[in-house]
Specification:
620 residues; alpha/beta; 5-stranded parallel β-sheet; 8 strands; disordered C terminus
């Protein structure tokens, strides 16, 4: 394995990556035809890509942008465009653009018209930059021709300039026109809009220039879709979104839109088309990206490949096993160490069981326990000095029998017999069934009984913790890398990184996640308080003598029983990716269908290390 040049996870945010890094870090999803089939950049059907912070929206949209098509073309982008059947024009929405036009009162319509004109010029500048790269200097005969240039000017209701002599001059004049509008808007300090003429109708340039290119330069653009990739849509206020929604609804071939936005970032689906709303499936399709990744069987492999690509770009080489071996599997090591325990080692789970039995001895007659001798017999059946985990599993099964009001002496004898069968490696025992479901919970309980910290280690567990959000995994590894470095260790460079460095990194990633999805205001405080209460409840249930559920990480509720305010807060928590919806399911007691969610914030360990909530998203 090679020595790493730098922390390969230093920049987890795609918006901060260079185009070359977007390309070199790109990993496709290995199912359903990959992201091209999911994203469909050459489809004329508009798409709204929803996802939580860090779900990969920006990386996905930039991958399908013209800049990345150019890199894939290796000097011949025209061939790539003809092969892929689209041109991707990437733009990032910004509050710096839209907020200047957010004026109410009697002049609101005039401000909306100015914003629409600004969007026309802004989009056109980006398209001009793309077209200029497709036809570099020395190869601009088609776009330098007077018929083409006149065609562009004729798209304006009032020509901004009488004539232009070349493409380069047209681009400069359009940029100057946009700067003049910027100047007028930036120097308007009242609600009355500046006296700046709107020179074109809505959509005239956004749709007209692609049509002109397709008709006048068919050798390149015939049959090509011009895909406007508008990212970070949440930065546009409701009126600005209403205008873009109108463009989506009224789109004209060969142009279409792909809009990236956070789950909470759609403020309206209304349009200016008779106040109608965008209709899902008929006027646009929706992609919930993190939910799609979370539900994909290909996600673990996808996540591993993301990390591998980062490592390879930093100079590392090795196998998947090398990657996993870079993280000390502290949990497995600790479980193995249990087998070396001597008979005099402290066993608090047996002490707790004996205390429970003795304190309730007077009430256990119906369960076959009538005196201290019976208690001693039960505890003796639970002991297995050769394997403390089996011993802990014995106590769990006895508490389960107790809750079912079984005869405890008979149950203890049966548990002792099943334990021997399980320890001998036989299949089908009650111990095997319970261990397959509750092992993580019971190991966590053992460590807590022994006043040891919960373990957070292992690459595959970090992948599970990320819950479909790749940035969460990258931030976890970034924090672990830094913690290892501070401790004099080197991640992915020989010896496995210690469990303590991994746990500290996970804790740091948890703090990052909490701050990253922070909801401000009173609603945020109330949601945070609710999460903390849920965390305390789940922790109490998980560390009880008989956990009611294995892998306890969800809660269900009947939405019809909630107040309007509670429903609103839960919906807000879902939109901010604090709760992760898991779909409807049947309540096992009432058989009623109820909704369920998973909390992804509280830093409390859960069913196993791999489903702890101490990180990012992970699960509760």
């Amino acid at each position: 394995m090679s020595i790493l040049k730098q922390n390969p996870f230093r920049v987890p945010h795609a918006a901060n990556l260079l185009d070359t890094e977007i390309d070199s870090f790109w990993v496709d999803l290995g199912d359903e035809g990959g992201f091209e089939q999911i994203f469909r950049p050459a489809s004329l059907m508009p798409m709204i890509i929803l996802g939580g912070k860090g779900s990969g929206k920006t990386h996905l949209m930039r991958h399908f942008s013209f800049e990345l098509q150019t890199i894939r073309g290796k000097g011949n982008v025209t061939d790539v465009i003809r092969r892929e059947k689209y041109v991707g024009i990437y733009l990032r929405a910004s509050g710096l653009h839209a907020s200047r036009f957010e004026k109410g009162g009697e002049h609101s319509s005039a401000w909306t018209n100015l914003f629409a004109f600004y969007v026309e010029l802004w989009f056109t500048e980006r398209l001009c930059a793309v077209v200029g790269d497709i036809f570099p200097e020395g190869r601009r005969e088609a776009i330098d021709s007077q018929p083409f240039l006149e065609g562009v000017l004729n798209l304006f209701d009032q020509r901004p300039f009488e004539t232009v002599e070349s493409w380069e001059m047209l681009v400069k004049r359009l940029a100057e026109l946009r700067r003049q509008l910027d100047f007028a808007i930036n120097n308007c300090f009242t609600a009355t809009p500046p006296n700046t003429p709107v020179l074109c109708s809505r959509g005239a340039l956004i749709f007209g220039i692609p049509q002109l290119l397709a008709s006048t330069i068919p050798s390149v653009f015939e049959g090509i879709v011009f895909t406007w990739l508008l990212d970070e849509y949440e930065h546009f206020h409701a009126t600005a979104q209403k205008y873009v929604n109108t463009l989506i609804r009224e789109k004209q071939q060969p142009a279409t839109f792909k809009v990236g936005v956070r789950l909470w970032g759609i403020y309206t689906y209304e349009t200016f088309s008779n106040e109608e709303v965008l209709k899902k499936e008929s006027e646009y399709e929706e992609l919930q990206l993190d939910q799609r990744l979370r539900s994909s069987d290909a996600y673990p492999r996808f996540a591993l490949n993301i990390v591998r690509r980062r490592l390879e770009n930093a100079g590392w080489s090795g196998s998947d096993d090398n990657m996993r071996a870079a993280f000390e599997d502290q949990q497995t090591l600790w479980e193995q160490s249990l087998k070396a325990w001597g008979p005099n080692e402290k066993r608090p789970w047996l002490e707790r069981l004996q205390k429970h039995l003795e304190e309730r001895q007077n009430t256990l007659g119906p369960l076959g326990v009538t005196n201290s001798s019976d208690v001693e017999k039960i505890v003796a059946c639970m002991k297995m000095t050769s394997d403390p985990f089996v011993e802990k599993l014995n106590t769990f099964l006895l508490f389960r029998a107790w809750s079912k009001k079984k005869n405890l002496l008979k149950a203890a004898t049966q548990i002792e017999k099943s334990a021997r069968t399980f320890a001998a490696g036989a299949k089908g025992s009650e111990h095997e069934k319970a261990s397959s479901k509750f092992k993580g919970d019971l190991v966590a309980q053992m460590r807590r009984n022994l006043q040891l910290p919960v373990i957070y280690t292992g690459f595959d567990d970090f992948v599970q913790m990320s819950s479909g959000v790749a940035r969460s995994l990258l931030v976890t590894l970034k924090k672990i890398y830094d913690e290892a470095l501070y401790s004099g260790e080197r991640l992915f460079e020989g010896r496995a990184v210690s469990g303590s460095a991994q746990s500290r990194g996970v804790a740091g990633a948890s703090e990052w996640f909490f701050e990253d999805v922070l909801i401000y205001g009173e609603d945020g405080l109330r949601i945070r308080a609710a999460i903390e209460r849920l965390g305390r409840l789940f922790r109490a249930l998980r560390f009880s003598e008989k956990p009611s559920e294995c892998s306890l990480n969800s809660f269900s509720f009947d939405p019809n029983s909630l107040s309007a305010d509670s429903s609103r807060l839960i919906e807000k928590a879902v939109r901010w990716s604090v709760f992760i919806p898991q779909g409807d399911r049947l309540d096992r007691n009432t058989r009623r269908r109820v909704s369920s969610s998973i909390s992804s914030l509280v830093s409390i360990p859960s069913t196993s290390m791999s489903t702890s909530v101490a990180v990012l998203g992970l699960r509760l």
